[in-house]
């Protein structure tokens, strides 16, 4: 077992300096039945304002505290979006005007009724605040100057949204489910406005929503506490209180879970997950996440822009070998840029490790003796493990890899400046619509250095995405959802062949739960976690 | 006339001199404090600017558009020359404004006021443990030099010094919290006790005493005792080794032999004469180890989910949150300067010659 004799002997030594410990009363209890305690790494959270936040833990928070015009059912994401604050909607003939009918009788946590005015205020606020995630809405042509025509409450129960051109309705409505489109209580927020900040300073640390919970307290890097909202349209949740404790270390999270001091542990390493298997009081829940792990080649580099070299490299990756060993439980093999479970997903996996084929391709390209190349990688365990495995595989075909590590910010700086040869890293979708990844992987309207389209991965890799840019544009305007999905499938098949991107894996997440915890939803690849339907 | 004038002048100078001397001394130490802090700020600021990390990205995130990026770049003042940036920064710091942290989006001073008490509490308790056990252990070790008590103590010390804190921390948690349930788990309090007592000093042990809430006090003790003991173990290892070597040096001196010949009891010779003379260098050792604990201990803080200064500064460094790094550096600098002054003061108490 874990506590072998030798370890017991060592801990005795530690006991020598802890002689006073026996005198301290141990005060421990199971977590109360109406309270959910979660161990989670939440140091990424910097603001609780839904029109500003753009962090992973922020998405969980928005799912708990705010509602949107349309939303997913957290018990079944395959249904797609459905009514929430809007009970129904119509789209005009030209595909540009969306008229939402606001549901009757819904209330904010404050008791104020939810009206079209609140919707107007919230969506306009997202545009006016100009925070990082605002692009999710401004991509429909909303600007500070045209808000009077584009985002308008006709009366208390009718809200009208006008886009600048025709888009696929699935695209527009998928974006309306993201955190930035959260509807805030306009009366409460306006009461706390300071110097025309639209209540930003206040909403960073307070809540004004209509979701399953309200904010009770937030202590950065310590804990986040939310309490049930009796006015919630889905009925007050069974958990009166959810406490999310910032516990950075996996082993510590596991210990708290085993001890019964937390109900859910969110950041467990595969080793710690495996360690939970024997415990009857615990269980493991697994779900897909939206992040894809990929390798990309800078097309400004002479060698790496050779199509034969690009193809060879895709055969030099031991996809299954990595997924079955050190990535087990963290990633599954996936070779298309849209995450599985997204509209237009492609399940094909045309590549596998094939050294001979890669060698032949390299010889055709004139590199029978290989070449030297540099990877840039963030100093994070899974990425470094992957980079090292790739280094070994590449060496078998004569390609000598040196790995440059750095902090996230360092590597990102190089990547955005096109100052690299091969990048190994992760991309996570910004909003739950295929456009988010298509737009970054497969669209690059101006490949010139001066264009500085640093948000697009195609640009960062100096890849002109010829043909793909137009196809991306066409797909985002297709109003027939089935046709639109097929367009993405076809596009990804060609992308797999041509693009200087080798998509390798999709993220999966494993959470440890107390055996009595039911109804917890991890949000699939689409969004973050939901605590609203949890019972225990 | 002239001679009279001179004598008067001399007399006056003599009369004013004690006051002047004190003022001069205060002035000199104040100057050295300010110069130290200024130098510290300058070097940190310089390092911050040459670091290969883009502070703007740290603010706006990976997905930001160019306009948002440019706006943040200007807002951070990065378009100004280095020296101008530094000047603005120093001007703000002098008026007590350390700027906003990009990482927490709060004023750096508020952040530090939140994380420093947690570290202070932990470091103080750890140092107390280190001193209470380390000095006697060192003395015993020196007295029994080469015999089994010395060997045992040195082994324990060496063990404490060479084991990775990550490992000891986790094993400690598994055994005393996980298996035995003797101590509280990670964090400063059980969650059910959080937010009950008003925060006065930010140190929960002190705050709960002020509120006279014994349940919370004991809960806080059960949470702090393990990390404090583990940090204390490290400082114990250091303090006992230093005490041992100082003591060995003293025990070989002639005055010790004289004292023994005089017929003084062995207890008096060791604990009074020898240890008395060891106190001055020992104070330096203790103060330095206390100061290094006050910088915060990142690994201990991570394992025990202790929201302290070490973790705060490390996170800030890794994400190029320069205001937070500079603010944290100034605080650590102040701690060192403050503790140096404290040790000067302590020398005067223990050293009869400087009274």
UniProtKB/TrEMBL annotation, chain A:
<dbReference type="Pfam" id="PF00496">
    <property type="entry name" value="SBP_bac_5"/>
</dbReference>
<dbReference type="InterPro" id="IPR039424">
    <property type="entry name" value="SBP_5"/>
</dbReference>
<comment type="similarity">
    <text>Belongs to the bacterial solute-binding protein 5 family.</text>
</comment>
<dbReference type="InterPro" id="IPR000914">
    <property type="entry name" value="SBP_5_dom"/>
</dbReference>
<feature type="signal peptide">
    <location>
        <begin position="1"/>
        <end position="29"/>
    </location>
</feature>
<keyword id="KW-0732">Signal</keyword>
<feature type="domain" description="Solute-binding protein family 5">
    <location>
        <begin position="82"/>
        <end position="447"/>
    </location>
</feature>
<dbReference type="InterPro" id="IPR030678">
    <property type="entry name" value="Peptide/Ni-bd"/>
</dbReference>
<protein>
    <submittedName>
        <fullName>ABC transporter substrate-binding protein</fullName>
    </submittedName>
</protein>
From TrEMBL, chain B:
<keyword id="KW-0813">Transport</keyword>
<feature type="domain" description="ABC transmembrane type-1">
    <location>
        <begin position="116"/>
        <end position="343"/>
    </location>
</feature>
<protein>
    <submittedName>
        <fullName>ABC transporter permease</fullName>
    </submittedName>
</protein>
<feature type="transmembrane region" description="Helical">
    <location>
        <begin position="156"/>
        <end position="177"/>
    </location>
</feature>
<feature type="transmembrane region" description="Helical">
    <location>
        <begin position="278"/>
        <end position="304"/>
    </location>
</feature>
<feature type="transmembrane region" description="Helical">
    <location>
        <begin position="26"/>
        <end position="48"/>
    </location>
</feature>
<feature type="transmembrane region" description="Helical">
    <location>
        <begin position="122"/>
        <end position="144"/>
    </location>
</feature>
<dbReference type="InterPro" id="IPR035906">
    <property type="entry name" value="MetI-like_sf"/>
</dbReference>
<feature type="transmembrane region" description="Helical">
    <location>
        <begin position="216"/>
        <end position="239"/>
    </location>
</feature>
<dbReference type="Pfam" id="PF00528">
    <property type="entry name" value="BPD_transp_1"/>
</dbReference>
<keyword id="KW-0812">Transmembrane</keyword>
<dbReference type="InterPro" id="IPR000515">
    <property type="entry name" value="MetI-like"/>
</dbReference>
<dbReference type="InterPro" id="IPR045621">
    <property type="entry name" value="BPD_transp_1_N"/>
</dbReference>
<keyword id="KW-1003">Cell membrane</keyword>
<feature type="transmembrane region" description="Helical">
    <location>
        <begin position="324"/>
        <end position="347"/>
    </location>
</feature>
<keyword id="KW-1133">Transmembrane helix</keyword>
<keyword id="KW-0472">Membrane</keyword>
<dbReference type="Pfam" id="PF19300">
    <property type="entry name" value="BPD_transp_1_N"/>
</dbReference>
<comment type="similarity">
    <text>Belongs to the binding-protein-dependent transport system permease family.</text>
</comment>
